[in-house]
Amino acid sequence: MKNQVIRYISTERVEFYRLDGGELTYIRSTNATDASLKKYDKVILSKENYAEATLDKAAHDFNPDKEQFLFSSYSTLDITDLLCLPAQALPSEGGFHQVWASRQKLLEIKELIPKAQKFYPETYFLINPIFDKENLNGTEFKFQKLYFTPTSARRGTKVLPTFLFFCLFFGIAPWLLSHFLNNTQSKLYFQNQMEVLERFTRMTQSLKLPTVNSLNINNSLQTVTIQLASPIGETFSKDLDAYCSLDLCQITVEQDKIIFSTLSDVKK
Question: What pTM does this model have?
Answer without folding.
Answer: 0.56
